[in-house]
Amino acid sequence: VQLVESGGGLAQPGESLRLSCAASGFTFSNYALSWARQPPGKERELVARISSSGSTNYADSVKGRFTISRDNAKNTLYLQMNNLKPEDTAMYYCAKRKGSFYYLSVDYWGQGTQVTVDS
Question: What value does the mean pLDDT of the chain take?
Answer without folding.
Answer: 97
